[in-house]
Structure formats: C-alpha cells, structure tokens
C-alpha cells in the first residue's frame, strides 16, 4: 500500500463531520440501515452485560468487604453518577463537533480504561478504588448511550424508530441475563480471594474486547447523521418542534425528568433483587438468588421482544403508558408479600419495565430536529437517577427490610408516569409523536439525489446560481 492509498484510507475514515450539511442519511431505507444498526447493537449488549454484572457485584462486595446495603450502592452511585458528565459534557461535545462514530470510539476507550483500572483496585481490596474504576466505566458507557440511543432512533425510517430502539435494547436485556448467571458461578461458588481474582479476569476480558471493538468502529464506514438531516426529517414530518429555542423544548425536559425517575426505580429494583430474595426466602443462597435475578432479567429481555411485537400494531405511546402503569400495579404487592409470591411480582415488574427506557428516549427526541444531539444528552443524563434512587432504597432496606424498601422505586415510577400520561393526552406532546409515526420518509426512497458530500448551503447556492443564469438568459432575449 503506497502513501497515496494510506492517505486515502485515513481520509475516508475521518472522524470530523459538518453538522450544517445534509446527507442522504436522513432518508436511509430499512435495507441501508441494517449494517450500522447491527454494529451499534453490539454496544447495547455490552452495557447490558456491564449493568447486570454490577447488580451481582453489589451483593458480592457486601459479602467480601463486609459493607452495608446502603454503602454497596456506591457502585451504582459511581456508575450512573458519571452519566451526566458524559451526556452533558465531554461526550456531547464530541458528538456535536465530530459525530457519532468518534463518540462511539471515545466511549469504548473509556470503558476499556475503566476495566483495566478496576484490576489493581480489586487486588488491593479497595472498594473506593473499584468505585473510581466503575465511574470511568460509567463515563464510557454514558458516552456510548449518548450517541447510540439517538443513532438507532434516527438511523432508518422515522416511522419505526421506537421499534428499532426497543429491538436493539433487547440485546441489552440479553446482556443483563448473562451477567448474573456468570456471577452466580464465578463470584459466589468460590472462596472470597478466588472470587475476587475471578472478577479481575472478567475485567481483563472486557477491557481487551472493547478496545478491539473501538478499532472495528474506526475501520467501519457507517453513515453519519447530521443536525441538518434531523432538521430535514422534522420539516418533512411537519412536527415543527425544532423552530423553538433549545431551552423552550419543554417536552424534552419532561422526558429527561421521567427518565431520571424511571431509571432510578429500575436500577434500585435490580440492585437489591438478590437482597430481596435472601430476605424473603431464608432458604435461598447468594448463588441461587443471582440465578433468580438472571431469570428476572430474562423476563425483562422477553418483555422487550414482546413490546416490539406490539408496537407493530399499536402506537408505541400507548404501549409505553400501559407497561409503565403495570410496573406500578405489580410492584405494590411485592412490598408486603414474601417468598415465591413477592418474587413473582418482581418478575412481572421487570417484564413491564422492558420497553420504558428506550421508548422515553425515542418519544422524547421526536421533532427535535437540529436540537437532536443536544437533546439526547439531556435524556441520557436522566440515567443519573440510578445514582440517587438505589442509595435511598438501600437506606430504607437497612432500616425496614428490602421488601418494604420497594416503596421507594414505586414512588419514582408514579412520578415517571406523568410523562406517559402527557405524551398520550396532551396535544403538544402527542402530535409530534404521531407525526413521526405516520411519515413515509425512508420508505419511498430518497427525497432527491442530494450528494452526501454536498451540504444544504451548497445546494441553496447552486439553486440561486441557476435562477441568476435563467434571469440573465431571459434578459438577453
């Protein structure tokens, strides 16, 4: 390969994207969007696995380091507390100034660094050091979510955005199933020193894998989607929400608040699921409780596939409202019931949690147009609820038992329900959502033959030049 070919190779994989230029990515068809969606879906599995591993480590560190339930929530605090630093800070800046692919690579790099930093912290039996490593991992995953959720939402026909993001997020659910099963055998069936050594090897494998995946993103040529593309989609669907200043996008901020409440409740339930089983079923062991958690996460993953199926026949906003309402209905009895009954209710809660997070993302970004990238940062920042609600739940669990502590996530589910009600019954919320659900963009081919290398400003300039030439010709006649 000569110098010219090397320069061409790196030029074709430039990470710099001009956001004021429209490309054909705004009108990708289903077939054109398959490869980039599949590649990005791998990321959803990664953070599902990481999140599921964290829930198992929560109980593991209670045992090996002799810490309270409330203090063990420091893992969730470090992990999810790093999200807004990424989604509103460094990752969002990279997304707006460089693009999606650069943000994917940055997030994977941070994820890998955090995984490798975790190893000496584990060797030193330092809970604080491990929390610091998890904060770096969380910052990396926050970066990935800042880019991946909006990318899946907008990569392909807008009509199917909720279906796409829920289908991709289903692989997140598969990751959360595998991690507790792995934890039940790797962390809870060995003595403490061996178990900690096994944790080290898990993070070595994670670190190597994510660095290789970052390289795969660099080598791949996936379509970038610009602010101009999103403005085009908004105008084509007549949602017309992006003509307001960013700070007047009230639907977005309500969605972000709902995400904070919902995610906090979801994380709290999963974080203390093993504790719940141990408290309500005295015969259980940590290993068996971890396997029950894996089963509950299996119900969560199954709920996502079922939700995707329903969304092909029912408007996603209605599916969202019903699923979130059922979360509230079924978590209530789990606070008073014990044994198999209480755990079964939590299984049902996880089933109905399934589609809520990605659907809030998709509905919250409807019609944002040129504000899409900034807006996605705010919705993903809502994930920081996972740093607030679990510690509150842990304090309640230490004082009153894990079962009664489920009242805390119940209260946050109720707060999140306000957005589900608004997006179904308030016209200012409902109309933009429905406008995107009925559009034909991406289903009937490209709107025009716009060159991917030519932006809106260049196109307008060309049109003005043609009009000027026509006027000159008429004047000469």
UniProtKB/TrEMBL annotation:
A cellular-component GO term for this protein: plasma membrane
Residues in the signal sequence: none
Residues spanning the membrane: 34-54, 103-121, 127-148, 169-188, 200-220, 252-274, 294-311, 318-336, 342-365, 377-397, 403-426
Entry coiled-coil feature ranges: none
Domain of life: Eukaryota
Membrane topology (UniProt): Multi-pass membrane protein
Localization (cell): Cell inner membrane
Main location class: membrane
Region named Disordered: 447-477
InterPro entries: MFS, MFS_trans_sf, MFS_TsgA-like
Any one GO MF annotation of this record: transmembrane transporter activity
Listed name of the protein: Major facilitator superfamily (MFS) profile domain-containing protein
Alphabetically ordered keywords of this record: Cell membrane, Membrane, Transmembrane, Transmembrane helix
